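Table S7 (text form). Paired inputs.
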Amino acid sequence: MKWSEISIHTTQEAVEPISNILHEAGASGVVIEDPQDLIKVWDTSMGEIYQLNPDDYPTEGVIVKAYLPVTSFLGETVDEIKEAINGLLIHDIDLGHNTINISEVNEEEWATAWKKYYKPVKISERITITPTWEQYDAVNTDEIIIELDPGMAFGTGTHPTTVMCIQALEKAIRPNVHVADVGTGSGVLSIAAAKLGARQVDAMDLDEVAVNSARLNIKLNKEQDRVSVRQNNLLDHVDGKYDVIVANILAEIILRFDQDAFNLLKPDGKFITSGIIRGKKEEVKNSLIQSGFHIEETLIMEDWVAFIASKPSKHPIEEEE
């Protein structure tokens, strides 16, 4: 089979939504070429070796690549991808160069091109994420290993927004808590929550591809007894109360349902939000406070921001009721 490589020159801010667009268009995986990776201080305490070639990376911006089968509908698919990417401008997302190139690759190149970018990575004090094809043995007795197949996922789990979410979950998760993962994508946050001790995790995503990917990854990590996945739009029609709600999605989406999150949290519950570009930090922070949250901690990594917000044990509105 012939494959077509679609390469999009964009910005860090646009990586996640463009990756989702590519997955929805039928791509089974994405490659992210971010020059920041060349200067990042990688954790090698676990024995990982990173050999990144500067020639594989742009001098500025980020390149997102995906692989699509060459069919008679390829031209229409590419047009739809371009239209969807341009539609991100409505949400004030900086697309940068926003140039798209198409080239043909053989099946062997398609199957292995993106694997060189993905090695085991220790992303927090206890959690290491590894691809399914890499042999990795825990170094510490309390180390948690999460296996992901990025060929079917919405990310490798090592993007700054995901790393901050998992670090926040380490602080927020207590034994037997009930967690909601809004916009679960690959399911990595749900898996992390379960392995950190959550009693039950409700993973939700509007995209059917994400739902299927999350289910596969959750089963791969043997957490299907504690994590359930369903197709759902944010927190619409969700009943019950949660101890922790986590959402790694765009700032504009967080602004749409932060009040719903507040209403569905138990007193002293935590709302962990990420996927927020630095320029939208104050807007999201102010909205969370207006919804009744107390900002406990602000995490910043590269150009990204995450918040750990809590619902006060007593809220004026609830006292009046």
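Next pair, protein 2 of 2.
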Amino acid sequence: MTADEERELKALLERLRQEHRDLDNAIEALQAMPGCDQLQLARFKKRKLQLKDRIGFVEDQIFPDIIA
């Protein structure tokens, strides 16, 4: 992997982590509202799980698990 590719992956990783944090805040805010929209809440949680999987994939690209 070249230095440019690694830099791009690290930038992508940071964007994904930020979106994950933002969704976490949105979920908390939505749950705090009385009579919150359960469908929207489920969508946010599903997106958050997708982001978690994507974050794991990108982390594996940057830091491969090499058995010595």
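Helices lie at 3-32, 38-62.
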